[in-house]
Design a protein that fits this description.
Blueprint: E1 14-16, H1 20-31, E2 37-39, H2 47-51, H3 83-96, E3 105-113, E4 118-125, E5 147-151, H4 155-166, E6 170-174, E7 181-183, E8 185-186, E9 189-190, H5 191-201, H6 204-219, H7 234-241, E10 246-248, H8 251-256, E11 261-263, E12 266-270, E13 273-276, E14 281-283, E15 286-289, H9 297-300, E16 322-323, E17 329-330
Parallel strand pairs: 1-2, 5-6, 5-15, 6-11, 7-10
Antiparallel strand pairs: 3-4, 8-9, 12-13, 13-14, 16-17
Helix pairs in contact: 5-6
The structure holds NADPH dihydro-nicotinamide-adenine-dinucleotide phosphate (NDP) and 3-(1H-indol-3-yl)-2-oxopropanoic acid (3IO).
Family: Belongs to the FMO family.
Cofactor: FAD
EC number: 1.-.-.-
Length: about 350
């Protein structure tokens, strides 16, 4: 077996991660004739999409907002492409721009060497197939009637609850804080698309008021079902804290009908028994954590102050990418978002 060299000199940018944003950055560079190296810790591109998402997942923003630069989605794709279609598109994209990530390479440290004028990136090779893919539990027939507690009421928790309902399980949803639920569409357009369009003409506070009025008309008063809204409007909140509004794809109707029960925050977890903050106790057959994730970038990036040391979240949103010192660029992530905004990069 050939041993890989200890040091490799890369005559161009290093891109960390072969997700949609990494692929987009590599393609744009390739288009300009700039070679780059993409390092990917998993053994495939878009590993979050391929290994860590549920099969029924669809994009919840229309496809025109999710396509990568230089190559549109195939015309025959529906408005909201499925996970399988999105992965197929990303594979085709990588092929088209001749992107060949170095797989199974985990970046441990990235530091700018000021005396050399180069970035020094330290990687460890992982075992082939080292995708640490946590599989989302699949509720099959054997799980019918099971009591499942879903923790976290972001888009994941809400969609997982709906799936559980549709497979005859009995889900409860932990909601420990306020949340903005918006219909996925309003006035015949996607809520996201309409919001972005309105923002071109009106201030954010006004667009927020509009979104809340239409949401109230279409969804009713969500507080009546245990889902209080934050005091700050949905766009303002996204902008200031990164918290994404939930785009309802049918979960709210199941909450209204009582098929999904809303619970307060968890105080303690004991085997199958959950104690809530109001001291009520209840037994569940399964617990699904849909509590989001944290960026690992602060762990390895030893340059700049892009991330809060307290919680690992970026210090401010990067609507169009972020340029730091020494040719350091961040593209495609929101504070908490999986999709991020890749359009601006
Ligand atoms: N169809 C699609 O396109 C989908 C897109 N997405 C996107 O992926 C990204 C990630 O979404 P998601 O996985 O939902 O993660 P998020 O970070 O958006 O949501 C996590 C949720 O978990 C809650 N939470 C965290 N810790 C706890 C706790 N200890 N107890 C109770 N609740 C807790 C948070 O609430 P709190 O405010 O209390 O911290 C929050 O509501 C988002 O951008 C989302 O829009 C996700 C699913 C589907
Ligand atoms: O799903 C995400 O991560 C999003 O970014 C969705 C989103 C961001 N801003 C919005 C405004 C209105 C509706 C959806 C969104």
């Amino acid at each position: 077996m050939m041993k890989s060299p200890r040091y490799v000199c890369v005559p161009g940018p290093v891109i960390v991660g072969a997700g949609p944003s990494g692929l987009a950055a590599a393609a744009c560079l390739e288009e300009k004739g700039v070679p780059s190296v993409v390092l990917e810790r998993s053994n495939c591109i878009a590993s979050l999409w391929q290994l860590k998402t549920y099969d029924r997942l669809r994009l919840h923003l229309p496809k025109q907002f999710c396509e990568l630069p230089l190559m549109p989605f195939p015309e025959e794709f529906p408005t909201y492409p499925t996970k399988q279609q999105f992965v197929y598109y990303l594979e085709a994209y990588a092929k088209r721009f001749n992107i060949k990530p170095v797989f199974n390479q985990k970046v441990m440290r990235a530091e700018f060497d000021h005396s050399l004028g180069f970035w020094r990136v330290k990687c460890v090779g992982l075992k082939e197939g080292g995708g640490d893919g946590v599989r989302v539990p699949v509720v099959d027939r054997g799980d019918r009637g099971k009591k499942v507690l879903v923790v976290g009421c972001g888009n994941s928790g809400m969609e997982v609850c709906l799936d559980l309902c549709n497979h005859d399980a009995r889900p409860s949803l932990v909601v420990r804080d306020t949340v903005h639920i918006l219909p996925r569409e309003m006035l015949g357009r996607s809520t996201f698309g309409l919001s972005m369009w309105l923002l071109k003409w009106f201030p954010m506070g006004l667009v927020d008021r509009f979104l809340l009025i239409v949401s109230r008309l279409l969804l009713g008063d969500t507080a009546r079902f245990g889902l209080d809204r934050p005091r700050v409007g949905p766009l303002e909140l996204k902008n200031s804290s990164g918290k994404t509004p939930v785009l309802d794809v049918g979960t709210l109707a199941k909450i209204k009908s009582g098929d999904i029960k809303i619970c307060p925050g968890i105080q303690r977890l004991m085997r199958h028994t959950v104690e809530f903050v109001n001291e009520r106790k209840e037994n569940f057959d399964a617990i699904i954590l849909a509590t989001g994730y944290r960026s690992n970038v602060p762990f390895w990036l030893k340059e700049g102050q892009m991330f809060s040391e307290k919680d690992g979240l970026p210090r401010r949103p990067f609507p169009n990418g972020w340029k730091g010192e020494c040719g350091l660029y961040a593209v495609g992530f929101t504070k908490r978002g999986l999709l991020g905004r890749v359009h601006g990069c």
